[in-house]
Each structure stands twice: as C-alpha cells, then as structure tokens.
C-alpha cells in the first residue's frame, strides 16, 4: 500500500509539472489560436534566468530565499520574452498559421543554439533548498516534499487562471475578443494589447514551469525545455486544444499513467504508455485537435 501511495503521489507531482508546462501553451492556443512551438524556449529562458540569479546572489541569503528571488526574476524574464515574441514575430502572422509554426520552430532551435553558445551544452547543477529535498511520512510511505510543492503551485495556478478568465474585466475582453474581435474593437477596446498581455502571461507561466522542472531534475540544460514541451503538447491534445480544465485533468492522468507503467510494467515503458494514451484519445475523440475553451 505504501509503495502504491508513493507512486501515485509521485505521478501527481509529475502531472503538476506537466500542467505548469502545458497551461501557458493551452492558454495561448485557446485564446489566440497560436500553436507556439517556441514554448519550450520560454521554459528554458526561465530555468536559466533562475539558475543565473541563484549563482549571482550571495550564499549568505540561503538557498530557499535565493530560489524565491530567482522565481520572481524568471517570471519577469518569461513575460518579457513572451511579449517580445508576440510583438515582433507573431503579431504580423495571426492569419498565417503555417508561417507561425515555421517561425516558432525556428525560434526554438535558435534558442537552444544560443544557450549552448553562452553556457555550453552540459547540464548545470541547480541548488535545491532543504525543504525540496526532504521527505514526509504519509500512511507508511515516505513522500518527497517537493511533490507537494509542485501540486500546490499547479492547483494555485489553475484556480488563478480560471478566476482571471471568468471574473475579471481582462478575462471578459479576452473571451469576447476571441469570439468577435471586430465587434470588441468597435467598442474602443484594444484587443491587440490584450492578446499581448496573454502572450506575456503564457511566457511567465512557462518560465515558472522551467524553474520548477529544473528543481525536479536538479540541473538545467539547453534541451530541457524542448523535452518538456513534448509532454506539454501531448497533455494539451489529450485535454482538448485550448481547454484549461481538460489540460489539468490530462496532465495528472499522463503523470499517473507514466509512473504506474514504469513501476508495474517495465522501467522505461511509461513514455510508450503516454503515447498509447494519446492515440486512444484521438481515436475515441478526434475533436481533441479542434480546440475547446476553458
């Protein structure tokens, strides 16, 4: 029983990271129709911004405090990168989806090359606060504390995004702009600026995912964002393109399936099980590729 509980909590923690990685991607696609293949670059930018910040701050501050400061810096960097990408690259291509894909794929490749050129291709160790390395007893199982941290952050983000979209003026403008942009602009509302804010928000969320995934892995590397992006796309497709609630459910399902398959089947078969889950969902519900709303 304790082993099963450990696997379940570990799967949920991994699913929380997948949700953090996929939520910004789902938000940008669901509200703006932009399939952003450069989302992995946003995560990499956040991870490296946090790592650089933590290495530059004095060690007397303590690892936990340095990590909190690094998270704030990473959020700012992610938001700025998102805004710049939207204004410079995406804005001229809103009606040209193929060009969007080509530009964002090219940007993701260029970002990996740039990071390798500056910091090298080797992984760099990330300092972890003591609270993220400890364990806590739960029904006879020793559960890593960091899994609960990932779960708490993911649930807080999910609730915050839903509240933003449903109960704020910005959320109302976003949803109205998606439904009928011409009518909203006729009312004197700058929909373009609103979409820029959404892209910046997506970049900040991606940066947060990059920081927490580097804590999970214990290191940062140039290709880290790209590998996490693969699971983010799988989660978004399974949950329904653009559905924030579906993305959350799919993220936890993917994390659980992956961990259960790795333990009860053969180690390493978890990735295959996730792909099979994706195939089953697409066969049973092809509309997953058509998009939905939160």
UniProtKB/TrEMBL annotation:
InterPro entries per UniProt = ABC_transp_permease (IPR001851), BCAA_transport_permease (IPR052157)
- Can you tell me where the transmembrane regions are? 6-27, 34-51, 63-89, 101-119, 148-165, 195-216, 228-256, 263-284
Q: Name one GO biological process term.
A: amino acid transport
Q: Which domain of life is it from?
A: Bacteria
Q: How does it sit in the membrane?
A: Multi-pass membrane protein
CDD domains, per this entry?
A: TM_PBP1_LivH_like
Give the Pfam families listed for this entry.
Answer: BPD_transp_2
Major location category of this protein: membrane
Q: Where in the cell is it found?
A: Cell membrane
What is a GO molecular function of this protein?
A: transmembrane transporter activity
Q: Which UniProt keywords apply?
A: Amino-acid transport, Cell membrane, Membrane, Transmembrane, Transmembrane helix, Transport
| Record's GO cellular component terms | plasma membrane
**Membership in a protein family:** Belongs to the binding-protein-dependent transport system permease family. LivHM subfamily.
What's this protein's name? Branched-chain amino acid ABC transporter permease
């Amino acid at each position: 029983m304790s082993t099963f509980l450990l696997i379940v909590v570990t799967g949920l923690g991994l699913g929380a990271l997948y949700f953090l990685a996929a939520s910004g991607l789902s938000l940008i696609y669901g509200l703006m129709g932009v399939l952003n293949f450069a989302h992995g670059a946003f995560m990499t930018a956040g991870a490296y911004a946090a790592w650089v910040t933590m290495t530059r701050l004095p060690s007397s501050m303590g690892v936990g405090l340095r990590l909190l400061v690094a998270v704030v810096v990473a959020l700012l960097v992610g938001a700025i990168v998102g805004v710049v990408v939207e204004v410079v690259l995406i804005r001229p291509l809103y009606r040209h989806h193929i060009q969007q894909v080509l530009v964002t794929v090219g940007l993701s490749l260029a970002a990996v090359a740039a990071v390798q050129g500056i910091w090298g291709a080797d992984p760099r160790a990330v300092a972890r606060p003591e609270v993220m390395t400890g364990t806590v007893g739960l029904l006879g199982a020793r559960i890593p504390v960091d899994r609960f941290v990932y779960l708490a952050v993911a649930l807080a983000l999910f609730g915050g995004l839903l509240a933003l979209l449903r109960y704020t003026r910005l959320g109302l403008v976003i949803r109205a702009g998606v439904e009928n942009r011409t009518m909203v602009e006729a009312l004197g509302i700058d929909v373009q600026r609103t979409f820029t804010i959404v892209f910046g928000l997506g970049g900040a969320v991606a940066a947060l995912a990059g920081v927490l995934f580097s804590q999970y892995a214990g290191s940062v590397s140039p290709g880290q964002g790209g590998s996490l992006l693969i699971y983010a796309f799988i989660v978004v497709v399974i949950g329904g393109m653009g559905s924030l609630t579906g993305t959350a459910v799919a993220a936890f399902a993917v994390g659980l399936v992956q961990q259960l398959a790795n333990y009860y089947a053969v180690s390493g078969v978890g990735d295959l099980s996730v792909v099979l889950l994706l195939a089953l969902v697409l066969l049973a519900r092809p509309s997953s590729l058509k998009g939905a709303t939160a």
